[in-house]
Amino acid sequence: MTDSPSQENPSSNSPHELRQPRITLENDVVLAPETRRMFEEAIGAMRHHKTIYTDWGFGDVDPMGRNMILNLYGPPGTGKTLAAEALAGTLKRQYIHIGISELESKYVGDTAKNITAAFESAAAEGALLFFDEADTLLGARLSSVTQGIDNEINAMRSTLLIELERFNGVVVFATNFAKNYDNAFVSRIRYHIEFKLPDFEGRKQLWNRLLVMGVPLEEDRTLIIDRSAAASDGLSGREIRTVLRTAFPRALVENPQEPRVLWVHLESAIADVRAANRNVGSRRHEAASNSNSANVDAGRRMLGISD
Ligand SMILES: Nc1ncnc2c1ncn2[C@@H]1O[C@H](COP(=O)(O)OP(=O)(O)OP(=O)(O)O)[C@@H](O)[C@H]1O
Ligand SMILES: [Mg+2]
After folding, report:
1. How many CB atoms lie under 10 A from the CB of residue 271?
2. Pick from 15, 179, 212, 245: most CB atoms within 10 A?
3. CA angle at residue 165 from 2 to 7, to 5 degrees?
4. Alpha-carbon distance 121 to 108, whole Å?
5. What are phi and psi of 45, to 5 degrees?
6. d(Cα 66, Cα 282) in Å, to the nearest integer?
7. Domain locations in the chain?
8. Tens of pLDDT along 99-116?
């Protein structure tokens, strides 16, 4: 499932493709105040990085500190993938997105080499390197798989560790299952930035953003936003988007001639999302926490090995 706008670009298959961010943290991502503060701190550190590490020479005594590694973690659908692209936008850098699909299609049998190549492209272009769904990559050692697969995954992780240490740029990891990270990686990450499910204020901002101005409403927009924010407690930004994806066609099907989005459309769509959460599938982080098997499956997928 791809969510960031640029991921919908069909030509974006290469693992090393440089992408131009189309969004910024300031304009396009709803963040809790603590989360925003962490980003501001990290951005401040990046902006002054060259001064500290190169001009002042701190890099001579702190060579490991030359890179900037961030980890965005939190429940599914809270805007981590979105924020990684937006961070590149705010920093005015291009970015390279490396997700499961790139690993699946391009990294088969050659994962370590391709990881090195991604770091090389990022270094050459000053691009931000973004590893999405990174729990797969940074996970603890796999114990319940056959020796061959285990070795290859561990070789890939060693390469990643080496590259991280050589790299002078910005690396962003995102995960909804950070508990799975191996300590070797955790200790190299400078900022761990937590994404939470939005509170009332956050949900109001999300509704305000997603209930775009062109939507014909029956009632006062501010009132609808307040009511929707109150009714969507516990929903993520992605789920609020799903609510609107369902509610809009519902209003149109009901009255194609003179469509009006009514409270009842929003209310019923919220109820549908809640029902789906209860009845269908399992949330990714819950599934992953059940056992090591999710990690093993991800490792197998990454190496192109399926049962
Ligand atoms: N904080 C947010 N601000 C703005 N939009 C959001 C936010 N959270 C979610 N959304 C909306 O939901 C979509 C999905 O969010 P995104 O893919 O960034 O979530 P995620 O945290 O990466 O989820 P996962 O852990 O499942 O990968 C976004 O593209 C956006 O439309
Ligand atoms: Mg994501």
Report:
1. 12
2. 15
3. 10
4. 19
5. -65, -40
6. 40
7. 5-194, 200-279
8. 866 655 454 567 778 888
Measured CA to CA, the distance from residue 32 to residue 27 in angstroms comes to: 14
**Which protein residues touch ligand 1 with a CB less than 6 Å away?**
3, 29-30, 76-82, 174, 176, 195, 206, 237-238, 241, 284
Most ligand 1 atoms within 8 A of CB, residue of 28, 38, 73, 78 to mutate: 78
How far is 287 from 280, CA to CA, in rounded Å?
A: 12
Tens-place pLDDT, residues 122-177: 999 999 999 998 887 787 655 555 556 666 677 788 888 999 989 989 999 999 88
CATH topology identical between 5-194 and 200-279: no
- Spatial neighbors of 235 by CB under 8 A, at least 6 apart, are 197, 198, 203, 243, 270, 273, 274
Helical (H) or strand (E) element with 19: strand 18-19
Interacting residues of 189 by C-beta distance below 8 A, sequence separation 6+: 69, 70, 71, 173
Residue 92: φ, ψ to 5°: 55, 45
The helices-and-strands tally (H runs, E runs) of the chain is 16, 6
Contact call for residues 232 and 240 (beta carbons, < 8 A): yes
- 7 CA → ligand 2 middle, Å: 11
What's the pLDDT at 245? 97
Would you state the structure tokens that stand for residue 128, as one six-digit string? 């931000």
Tokens in use for 215?
């939507």
CATH number of 5-194: 3.40.50.300
